[in-house]
Automatic annotation (TrEMBL):
<feature type="domain" description="ABM">
    <location>
        <begin position="2"/>
        <end position="92"/>
    </location>
</feature>
<dbReference type="InterPro" id="IPR009050">
    <property type="entry name" value="Globin-like_sf"/>
</dbReference>
<keyword id="KW-0408">Iron</keyword>
<keyword id="KW-0378">Hydrolase</keyword>
<dbReference type="InterPro" id="IPR001486">
    <property type="entry name" value="Hemoglobin_trunc"/>
</dbReference>
<dbReference type="Pfam" id="PF03992">
    <property type="entry name" value="ABM"/>
</dbReference>
<dbReference type="InterPro" id="IPR011008">
    <property type="entry name" value="Dimeric_a/b-barrel"/>
</dbReference>
<dbReference type="Pfam" id="PF01152">
    <property type="entry name" value="Bac_globin"/>
</dbReference>
<keyword id="KW-0479">Metal-binding</keyword>
<dbReference type="InterPro" id="IPR007138">
    <property type="entry name" value="ABM_dom"/>
</dbReference>
<dbReference type="GO" id="GO:0004497">
    <property type="term" value="F:monooxygenase activity"/>
</dbReference>
<protein>
    <submittedName>
        <fullName>Antibiotic biosynthesis monooxygenase</fullName>
    </submittedName>
</protein>
<keyword id="KW-0560">Oxidoreductase</keyword>
<dbReference type="InterPro" id="IPR012292">
    <property type="entry name" value="Globin/Proto"/>
</dbReference>
<keyword id="KW-0813">Transport</keyword>
<dbReference type="GO" id="GO:0016787">
    <property type="term" value="F:hydrolase activity"/>
</dbReference>
<keyword id="KW-0349">Heme</keyword>
């Protein structure tokens, strides 16, 4: 992905109409398949300064695909009165130097850390071994399997990187599912029992956490199902997945 930054200097008397113009321009911009995301920010220290950030699938997709595409005319018509106020317009490549700060807790911390995830997997796998549909998949698992799944979840939810350091990371987990021929019915039961286990052990029940948690479980079980099929050839080396809050950060009531 390429990030485009456009710096504007707008007369404060025209700020309201400028922002309204970009609100209109955002409609065709968002509709363009070359656009990943966008954000218009206003400087607090110098209110006449604005920065527009647009993520593009590539610089060529922006310069050729978008600018010659069906959505550009409406976009440009909305912002044309302000083109002369542009002070900088450049594309930037993203670097690996990025991350999240501590103002928003990780899902690992919000869930209760390793202790909570260990309780979750212990309850879940106890239920699995009593379940006629899932027992055939797990009846030969190693005694410490629940422990390592909890460690995996901890790293996925931005906790300690123990699974990578002690177990080998993604390539070890993906091999656990090869050739298992998991069925859709088994996947659905897997999800249902995990959700029941989350209730039983008292994982946070707020909508934001449960939505993010369910999102990962749905994603993970669907990946496992796909990778387990007889004709599957999944990549055996890939980065560890990491899960966050998505579009709904954790809700904290005002004090």
């Amino acid at each position: 992905m390429i990030v485009e930054y456009i710096r504007y200097r707008i007369d404060p008397a025209r700020a309201e109409e400028f922002e309204a113009a970009y609100a209109r321009a955002a409609v065709p911009l968002a509709a363009a398949p070359q656009c990943v995301d966008y954000e218009l920010a206003r400087c607090v220290d110098e209110p006449e300064c604005y920065v527009l950030r647009i993520g593009w699938t590539s610089a060529d997709d922006h310069m050729r695909g978008f600018r010659s595409g069906e959505h550009f005319p409406a976009f440009f018509a909305a912002i044309k009165p302000y083109v002369q106020q542009i002070e900088e317009m450049r594309h930037y490549e993203r670097t690996p130097v990025r991350g999240a700060g501590s103002s928003v807790p990780t899902m690992y911390d919000w869930a209760g850390g390793d202790e909570a995830l260990q309780r979750l997997t212990e309850v879940f796998y106890t239920a699995v071994l009593k379940d006629d549909l899932l027992r055939p998949l797990f009846e030969h698992m190693a005694p410490d399997h629940p422990k390592w799944v909890a460690v995996w979840l901890g790293e996925v939810f931005r906790g300690p990187e123990r699974y990578s350091e002690e177990r080998g990371g993604y390539h070890h987990m993906v091999r656990q599912h090869l050739g298992k021929a998991i069925t859709e019915a088994q996947r659905r039961r897997w999800v249902a029992l995990l959700m029941e286990a989350a209730d039983e052990v008292g994982l946070p029940a707020d909508p934001e956490f449960r939505a993010a948690f369910a999102s990962y479980i749905e994603w993970g079980t669907r990946i496992a199902l796909s990778n387990s099929q007889p004709d599957a050839a999944p990549p055996l080396e890939a980065p560890m997945p990491h899960w966050g809050w998505g579009v709904a950060p954790p809700y904290t009531p005002a004090k």
